[in-house]
Amino acid sequence: MGSSKSERKRVLYVNQFFSHYRSSVIDEFLHKSNHDFVFMGADHSFGSGIALADNIPPEKFKRSQGYRFWKFLFWPRPVFAALNPRYDALVLLGNSTVGAMWLAAIFGRLTGKEVYFWTHGWVRKDTGIKRFIRNTFYGLANGLLLYGHRSKMIGIGEGFDPDRLHVVYNALDCESQDSTRAKISSEDRDKTRKDLFGEHASNPTIINITRLHHYKKLDMLIDAAAILKDRGHPVNILIVGDGPHKSELEQLADDKEVSAVFTGALYDELEIGQMLNASDVAVMPGPVGLLVMHALAYGVPVITNDHFDRQMPEFEAIVPGVTGGFFENDNVDALADCIQTFFADSSSHEERYARSREIIERFYNPTSQRRLIDRALSGEKADDLANAVICQIKD
């Protein structure tokens, strides 16, 4: 049966697999949480190429593969685990297309467990059957662990109790990023730019780190760079990543005579840190996600489009004129204008770093995320001001 607010709860955290980027918050759960976490998921990433977290002790990991049939995932073990009296609470993958999560939530509630979905939640207002399915699914849980405030506001509009909608943000490994940045000197910044761009090293540098797919709209970034060059404001483009759109983008940069370097995929944090430290701004013409967290952690502001119904929750960390900016969606001239306005700012690299880092240190970090999830699991009501207080407290 479920335990009281004051007790240390035994929590089963279920995900399809645990990505490497979650390693730091997993460490928080393992070593600093008020509750006892066990993790259930696959030991592979279903062919996605995503690196897995390697810091979960064997005694804390329950292997649960799941099997894909066309677009469906057959995943029985979480359903049986939901019936196990060993657990007081379940933190489940909040994806309504995965049937196992419906059953796990239902069985968890029937056996007296507290159930939470960790999910993007509502990215936009749904209609029709999609709205009914999503709202019915979310209604199975005691609470939702959401990445952003926009999702919470839409949920409130759908009639959900705001006390059950916990905004827990997202996070990368801030300690590792801080350690990496400390190894990179101002001389390294200049050297990296020169190694990458040679005679163009003094031009402002725009970075993007992503899988190179069409929906990322990176062709718009190259077109915007060509517009800026024609205006007499040449820039460098630095693309870190690989994917099916790479050769087309390389050809487009050649055709437009834009100064662009494609590094391919990089996984070593020091290499990625050097690329970010050598850059002035990150730009994502399509939907932006973890790039926001990664760039801001190194003090690099982020520009993306203003079509918030198609954005990922991390866009909320972008404060126009402070940590980046927004341009009119699908308008390449507006993108060029936004970049040009940004580079007209006379702030130094270190001033931009300080502004960008502040929001990471206050909200988007593993310690903050773990504390907020701990609050939810302890039975506290969702409080959007809580993070402004608890982020100031040292463990």
Distance between the termini: 30 Å
H/E series, N to C? Answer: EHEEEEHEHEHEHEHHEHEHEHEHEEHHHH
What is the SS-derived class?
alpha/beta
Give the strand content: 15-25%
Average pLDDT? 91
Rough shape? elongated
Main pleated-sheet profile? 7 strands, parallel
- Give me the number of helical elements: 15
The helix content is 25-40%
The residue ranges in which pLDDT falls below 50 over 5 or more consecutive positions are: 390-394
Rg: 22 Å
Strand order of the largest sheet: 3-2-1-6-7-8-9
Number of strands: 15
Fold blueprint:
Elements: E1 10-14, H1 23-31, E2 36-41, E3 61-63, E4 67-69, E5 72-74, H2 77-81, E6 89-93, H3 99-110, E7 114-119, H4 128-138, E8 143-146, H5 149-157, E9 165-167, H6 174-182, H7 186-197, E10 205-209, H8 218-230, E11 236-240, H9 246-256, E12 259-264, H10 269-277, E13 281-284, H11 290-297, E14 302-305, E15 324-327, H12 332-344, H13 349-362, H14 366-377, H15 386-390
If you had to describe this structure to a student in words, what would you say it looks like?
The chain is of the alpha/beta class. Helix content is 38%, strand content 17%. The strands form three sheets. Strands 3-2-1-6-7-8-9 form a seven-stranded parallel sheet, with helices on both faces. It has a six-stranded parallel sheet with strand order 12-11-10-13-14-15, with helices on both faces. A two-stranded antiparallel ribbon has the order 4-5. The two termini are 30 Å apart.
